[in-house]
Amino acid sequence: MPQxxxxxxxxxxxxxxxxxxRTTLGRRPNNDIxxxxxxxxxxxxxxxxxxxxxxxxxxxxxxNGTYLNGHMIKARELLHDNDAIAIGNFRIQYLAASEESGYxxxxxxxxxxxxxxxxxxxxxxxxKVLSGSSAGLEMPVVKTVTTFGQPxxxxxxxxxxxxxxxxxxxxxxxxxxxNGLPVGAEAVPLAHNDVLELAGTSMxxxxxxx
Length: 210
Description:
Elements: E1 3-8, E2 11-17, E3 22-26, E4 33-34, E5 45-50, E6 54-59, E7 67-68, E8 71-72, E9 77-78, E10 84-87, E11 90-95, H1 103-113, E12 123-129, E13 138-141, E14 145-150, E15 154-161, E16 164-171, E17 177-178, E18 181-182, E19 188-189, E20 195-198, E21 201-209
Parallel strand pairs: 3-4
Antiparallel strand pairs: 1-2, 1-11, 3-5, 5-6, 6-9, 7-8, 7-10, 10-11, 12-13, 12-21, 14-15, 15-16, 16-19, 17-18, 17-20, 20-21
């Protein structure tokens, strides 16, 4: 199944499988993929799935444009495996096929199995980037398990359990830290204003009432 891997400065922020005929991307919350950044238009672009794996991308008249492998998209274009899409500071890698039973699904099962009693699920969680050119960018944590990082450097999984949010180091030689302390394979709870250091990027964990 085709998939899109979105990153900012090498840190993965979204991983989406293209299951629908049309998958929209933009800043407004009605989109399938929401990138809340001023450089992203309200309805920025759309990915159209035909058959099992043929995917086209089309810009929806965005202000700053959609770039495919370095050139601005002027018309609907067919995507090929490992194509690179750029929208503002976001980089999106297109993969034509994947096994959903692989790493991400395995991580989901592993972390959920460890869930233990704890806090409210009515809170909205996000990470705020503190360093680099993307400082100030907020990345919502909306899935049961969300992965962040660079596969060849360091990847963490943030799990939303019944009683709160937890982070664990999944893979990579560089160990992440939480408030200066190393994060290992054993999931540890996240609290409001915790600072996660991951692959050279500082991110502040935020919890807000729903």
